[in-house]
Design brief:
The chain is α/β, with parallel strands linked by helices. The chain has helices at about 5-15, 50-70, 80-90, 135-145, 160-170, 180-190, 195-205; strands at about 20-25, 30, 35, 40, 75, 95-100, 110-115, 120-130, 150-155, 175-180. It has one domain (about 5-205): Rossmann fold. The protein has a six-stranded mixed sheet with strand order 7-6-5-8-9-10, sandwiched between helices. A two-stranded antiparallel sheet has the order 1-4. It is globular, with a radius of gyration of 17 Å.
């Protein structure tokens, strides 16, 4: 996975400006996993900003076209990437489906919502990659439906080694618009953080489960 440096920095700048990404090394956030984190990311906030929403959509489409060609279907990962995936599918003139975190407990018990057929090629759209486990569950669901998953695109990745290992093990290509390294570089440039914050931020990325204990 090779980032476009200009795009990565611009995405990082946008997400920082609208506070979709917040950095606070001195008063860390607590994730659902229990990890203490100096960063909080909610890319759904970008949907409320038309200029930024459009730029992200354009870059996702370009990323897909460059790395995977034109698939038969775009799939979004519920719930954060449903809207982004639908925007991408609309721009590319393609069918759209989304993959639930778990099968519906009523009705048809669907895991994949929307029409998809065996043998169709699919690119998965995700908003955020942490460990990659929830994202790869969507890939598994599509593969179990006999679809040919070409790979995944995402807005942002923390760049954890465990995520890289998980995608490699799953034999799923991943391309993201921006990542943690680009974020830190842009945050420093734009004075969202200071030089004194850098050591702590870099230490978190290396060992997030131990950071802050």
């Amino acid at each position: 996975m090779k980032l476009n440096d200009d795009t990565a920095l611009k995405i990082a700048e946008f997400l920082l400006q609208i506070k979709a990404i917040k950095l606070n090394p001195t008063a860390p956030y607590t994730w659902a996993s229990g990890w203490k984190s100096p960063i909080y990311c909610d890319n759904r906030i970008a949907l409320s900003h038309p200029k930024i929403r459009t730029y992200i959509r354009q870059q996702l489409v370009q990323n897909i076209t460059t790395n995977y060609g034109k698939p038969d279907v775009i799939a979004g990962v519920a719930t954060g990437a449903i809207a982004q995936g639908a925007l991408v599918a609309e721009a590319m003139g393609l069918p759209f489906v989304y993959v639930r975190a778990s099968a519906k407990e009523h009705g048809m018990g669907n895991l994949i919502e929307g029409k998809i057929e065996k043998g169709q090629t699919v690119v998965v759209v995700e908003d955020l990659i942490s460990t990659g486990m929830s994202s790869l569950k969507a890939v598994d669901a599509l593969r179990n439906a006999d679809c040919d998953v070409k790979g995944m695109v995402a807005i942002f990745s923390y760049g954890f080694k465990v995520a890289n290992d998980n995608f490699k093990k799953a034999k799923c290509k991943l391309n993201t618009l921006s990542d943690y390294d680009a974020l830190i570089k842009q945050a420093l440039k734009s004075n969202f953080i200071t030089d004194n914050d850098l050591k702590s931020l870099k230490a978190w990325r290396e060992s997030p489960e131990e950071w802050g204990k």
